[in-house]
Design goal:
This protein has 3 helices and 2 strands, in the order αβααβ. The chain is mainly alpha-helical.
Amino acid sequence: MPADLDEKTDRYERLLAEALDAATVAVPSGTPLADAAGECTEMARSYLEDGRHFREQEDLVNALAAFSYGHAWLDAGARIGLFDVPEEGHLFTQ
């Protein structure tokens, strides 16, 4: 049975917000990699804000897309070593 769009949007919003809280920069400050980590974080935060805006407008499809894109920025950054993230749990792919 497919997930309800409202429930899925809620779940992905929580996932992105929790992932933003859990990710810490793993590269030395003042380096190009730290700049890249900052850009990934900023993109994730921007998509979180965009998703919340879309949700307020009752546009769940674009809200879900924004939350998903935001999480993808963090997850990709974690996979290439820009962020330290929890190894256990549901926030990031392993």
